[in-house]
């Protein structure tokens, strides 16, 4: 380990670019395309369905889906699904919530950086002196909506979360990261 690695620690926060978000954006997009195609085919009177094509090849007759109300609702749900998948894709592209936590003993500061939504406040960049840090606090809530978060407690009882939202860590990982950080910063660790 070099001297700089001992004096500077950086923890990467993933944000919206998680595999599960890519998965759901693609699945919702594909589902919405199916709903929209069904709604449009219903509006134009086209009998377009995989199951109907199979039935016709076996000699069975098929009936078209009436536009009102079924086709209209299919179009509405397809539009909502498309907009949701577009929104989700934009969140992934912008990497909302992604960033890093940097603890720099060499320069004597803590820097917490996150990407936000586009606009004048897109970059959230907080910087504090190491002298302002009182403790590292770990919050462990068990239950249906369990929460495991590491907080940086500053003078004046201000607490800043260090772990990303929707980034579940095991109990062992959170204890290890919190204790390493408290040892590195030479502050107390609170539960």
UniProtKB/TrEMBL annotation:
Keywords: Membrane, Photosynthesis, Plastid, Thylakoid, Transmembrane, Transmembrane helix. The chain crosses the membrane at residues 21-46, 74-96. It is a multi-pass membrane protein. Its main location: membrane. Pfam families: Ycf4. It comes from the Eukaryota. One of its GO terms (biological process) is photosynthesis. Seems to be required for the assembly of the photosystem I complex. Belongs to the Ycf4 family. This is Photosystem I assembly protein Ycf4.
